[in-house]
Amino acid sequence: MTTIYNFSAGPAVLPKPVLERAQAEMLDWHGSGMSVMEMSHRGKEFTSILAKTEADLRKLLDVPNNYKVLFLQGGAIAENAIIPMNLLNGGAADYVVTGSWSKRSVEDANAYGKINVVASSEADGFTHVPAFSTWKLNKDAAYLHICTNETINGVEFDGLPDAGDVPIVADMSSHILSRPIDVSKYGVIYGGAQKNIGPAGLCIVIVREDLLDRASPLTPAVFNWKTQSENQSMINTPPTYGIYIAGLVFEWLLEQGGVSAIEQVNIQKANLLYDYIDSTDFYINNIALHNRSRMNIPFFLADESLNDAFLKGAEAKGLLQLKGHRMVGGMRASIYNAMPIEGVQALVSYMQEFEKAH
Ligand SMILES: Cc1ncc(COP(=O)(O)O)c(C=O)c1O
């Protein structure tokens, strides 16, 4: 059978050992006689899963004690509205637009107060993060919102601006856990799970405690970070199975040596693909070198009339879901933590073969 490599941007490939373990535990989790899906979220079995999942995430990201970790529903797009509900409260916030997702965050937040776009690379086709020195930051902003890895455009931050006392709120959906971060530099970190963490339906929010008292009184309890943190993310029924799979992914990541170790593999994988793209005129990636994403690598064929043939040939080789996002076109290879280096090697071999044939 052909080995399948899944380059989907999300929902995306998960580590095989995680899926095998989930399969083995499907009908009977640790002698409970139940699947995790069937357990009460308040029972001792599931509360132990949640506690371990949170502890492992804290270990992986070295989350300081003055941060709460929430396991919520609604994905990252829901957070686009939930963030201003929790932090804006009649004030104004700064947003930086570096791709389709941060642009969407601005559109969603606009209904909740004054949103100032303080830097944008839209006029340049979202090919880089504007130099920090050009950002028109407001000292009294309630927060500064950024998306540190733009999944569609393939643009990743290679540093953080100095925002002074303004808390930085970062959408890390598509690169969380792919590289070490200093959590203490952020006010809020959030991300949908379906790329580097687990199944869709779970959103992780890491929030500094002193930011929990700023919610608008109109914020519903399920969307109120303080209420959720006081109730162990259980104001509503949390996405229990998603949390369980996330927990298995965190255990797997710790076994790999943690985030610093996986970062080295991610660098190797990304270099392999970018180096090949840069070595030929047949394929093109226009993103500024220092902002090229290690997780999402969009590329174009110089002759776009070959797109269909490229995708068809890729599929025949078991290289799946390489079609670029509909807003951008071309191709995109998403190579999250769970994509083995063999998958990237297989892709590069196929790209070389296709180039020779055409
Ligand atoms: C960076 C980023 N932000 C937000 C989202 C939206 O996530 P969701 O559809 O889970 O709400 C995505 C999804 O692909 C994303 O990549």
From TrEMBL:
Residues 4-347 form the Aminotransferase class V domain. Keywords: Amino-acid biosynthesis, Aminotransferase, Cytoplasm, Pyridoxal phosphate, Pyridoxine biosynthesis, Serine biosynthesis, Transferase. L-glutamate binds at residue 42. InterPro entries: Aminotrans_V_dom (IPR000192), Pser_aminoTfrase (IPR022278), PyrdxlP-dep_Trfase (IPR015424), PyrdxlP-dep_Trfase_major (IPR015421), PyrdxlP-dep_Trfase_small (IPR015422). It catalyses: O-phospho-L-serine + 2-oxoglutarate = 3-phosphooxypyruvate + L-glutamate; 4-(phosphooxy)-L-threonine + 2-oxoglutarate = (R)-3-hydroxy-2-oxo-4-phosphooxybutanoate + L-glutamate. The keyword Amino-acid biosynthesis applies. Pyridoxal 5'-phosphate binds at residues 101, 151, 171, 194, 236-237. The keyword Amino-acid biosynthesis applies. Its EC number is 2.6.1.52. Pathway: Cofactor biosynthesis; pyridoxine 5'-phosphate biosynthesis; pyridoxine 5'-phosphate from D-erythrose 4-phosphate: step 3/5; Amino-acid biosynthesis; L-serine biosynthesis; L-serine from 3-phospho-D-glycerate: step 2/3. Binds 1 pyridoxal phosphate per subunit. One of its GO terms (cellular component) is cytoplasm. It comes from the Bacteria. Belongs to the class-V pyridoxal-phosphate-dependent aminotransferase family. SerC subfamily. Homodimer. This is Phosphoserine aminotransferase. The gene is serC.
